[in-house]
Structure formats: structure tokens, C-alpha cells
Amino acid sequence: MKTALLIIDVQNAMFTMEPPVHKGNELLENIQKMISYARDRNIYLIFVQHSGPNNSPLEKNTEGWDLYDTLSPQAEDIIIHKKTPDSFYETSLQEYLSQLKIEHLIVTGIQTEACVDTACRIGFSLGYKMTLVKDAHSTFHKETLSASSIIEHHNEVLRWFAGTVSTEELISS
Fold first, then answer.
1. Rounded CA gap, 140 and 138, in Å?
2. Where residue 90 sits, what CATH number does that domain have?
3. How far is CA 71 from CA 7, 22, 131, in A?
């Protein structure tokens, strides 16, 4: 089964906002492990990069918009640009997945309750086998819910759409 690793919105601004992304260093470590896992197994890497409106932290072609430095996409990796929480909506993602004959998507990234959630649900609806790496996605604390509560909740709810595994469980399988 051909597989691709989605790395959603891991961009510089996510680590400089107040509050910054929850457990940012752990998130980056786990995503880096997933990147190594993917490269070792010839799994396609697809980086999704959000473009926000002018004067926003994710304004296109600004330092905040850039993919986080340690990710280091390579020439063969795919970068998808999006303007909404949906990585499939008005992007070339579906076209690339079809061309590459991808059947399985492994999902990581930011923001759990928005872009990560949407990728899992839409991917499932489009017929992909979905895997959510439960310790390789994150979000921000809210007034009403802590980031850890949001992450735990989504790991539970998204199991209806995706298999949920930890980084260590996936890389040791």
C-alpha cells in the first residue's frame, strides 16, 4: 500500500505565538522521527503550508509563514499551499495523491482541532486509510480548554476516521 506522511502547518509562527504551540519541542522531535521513518521506508513526504491573510502571523512569504527550520524538505518532497483549514480544499493535494497512487495517509502537524481534524475526516471520506500519530500533532491553549484536553479529545474522536498510534508504536512496527 503506497503511503504518504502529511506534515500540516509546522511553520515558524506556530512557535512564536502567545501562547506558543503546546509541547512544541516534543512535537518537533516526534515529527522529525516520523520524517526519518518515512525517508527510511521511501514513504512520500507532503508538507502542507498555510497562507494567512496580510499582516497575520502566517502571511505568505514572511518568516512566520516559512516551514519550521528543522523540517528541511528535500527536492523530492511535495509542498502544498492552502488558505483554509482543509488541506484538500482548492489545493493540489488530491491531484498529487492520485498521481502517486497513494492509499494511506499518516497525519501529523498543527492545529489539532482544525487542520489535523479536517485532514483526517476528509481523507477518510475520500477513501484513504488514515493514521493519526497521536503524539505528533498539537494545538494551543484556549480560554475554555487546555491544549492537552483538546489533543486527548481528538485522539479519541478521530479514531472513527483514523487509526491512532504513538510515534514509537508506528516506528517500531
1. 7
2. 3.40.50.850
3. 9, 18, 20
- Read off the C-alpha cell for 72: 528541511
pTM above the 0.85 mark? yes
Q: With H, G, I as helix, E, B as strand and everything else as coil, classify residue 129.
A: strand
For 71-125, the pLDDT digits (tens) are: 889 999 999 999 999 999 999 999 999 999 999 999 999 999 999 999 999 999 9
Q: Print the domain residue range for 37.
A: 3-171
Please state the φ and ψ torsions of residue 67, each to the nearest 5 degrees.
Answer: -60, 145
pLDDT in tens, 2-22: 999 999 999 999 999 888 899
Q: Where are the alpha helices (DSSP H) in 65-146?
A: 93-100, 117-125
**Residue whose entry in the numeric block shows the C-alpha cell 493514521:** 131
- Give the total number of structural domains in the chain: 1
